[in-house]
Amino acid sequence: MLEVRAPLTATVVDISVWPGKMVNKGEELMQLEAMKVYIPIQAPCTGRIVAVHISSGQVVQKESIMLVIECANS
């Protein structure tokens, strides 16, 4: 399992995934916003979303776990 962490302190603008959803490497999982700049967060591997620990509008701290992916090749 792979934890997707926040690259910086930011606000969650949009979440495109939910537990159980299959994703492909590079697929956009969510968007964060910091200082009026939108940051797309992409899937680091092909696999299944196991858990989503954030919600839209939430402020996430740098390095906090946002979601967990079970990679298909693990």
Structural notes for this entry:
- The chain is mainly beta and 74 residues long.
- The chain has a single domain (2-71), classed as OB fold (Dihydrolipoamide Acetyltransferase, E2P).
- Helix content is 0%, strand content 54%.
- It is built from no helices and eight strands.
- Strands 1-8-6-3 form a four-stranded antiparallel sheet, with no helix packed on it. The chain has a four-stranded antiparallel sheet with strand order 5-4-2-7, with no helix packed on it.
- The termini are close together.
- The model has no long low-confidence stretch (mean pLDDT 97).
In short:
With 74 residues, the protein is an all-beta fold.
Attribute tags:
single chain; 74 residues; mainly beta; OB fold (Dihydrolipoamide Acetyltransferase, E2P); four-stranded antiparallel sheet; 8 strands
